[in-house]
Request: fold
Amino acid sequence: MGANTIHFMQITYVVSKNMQVFLQHSRHYVGILSSRHGTLTLPANDKTEREIMSEQLLRNPDIEPTDEVLHNALGKAYPPYVSFLESLAPLEIENVWRYYPDGSAWLTKGLYRWTGPRGGKKETTTYWLGVWEDAFRVTVYFPMKHRETVLEAPVSAVTLQMIADAQQLGKLKFFPVQFEVTSKKQLTDIIALVKLRKELG
Reply:
């Protein structure tokens, strides 16, 4: 098998760097890839199988993610996506799309731009978002040193457990909290964590 393969049950996946990022940051992730190349074993359960088999969309670098394109890609998840963007407006967070060649897909990140105490221009990435079949995935990365603060966030018990279980990203001093969004009901916790990430800088 190739060095950059992922084994899941009886299926072998050859993935790019950016795809590894999404699988690596799944809440079902059970290991850490120490480099761009490596082998990862995921637990064999129905939830994980569905996520791995789900297709990431927005692969064509020549087709920008316009509202029409996103509507067609997200289907029933488009209204929650719109609501997510509307919730960002009061937080002064900009949704910035870009095509990433390593992952062969369009991704967006939420940028909060601010001015430092000495007048320098600063920016914080509050989340990353990718589009999949009938869903979008939002991942918020928190510094490890703030885990206890994040565990005090006003979110559900399920989300608090996700935060507690999240693994450090190898040598990087961050841990991810990821949501697969298909309903507006999920947005309350996500917005709370995005807001917290903005405040933590």
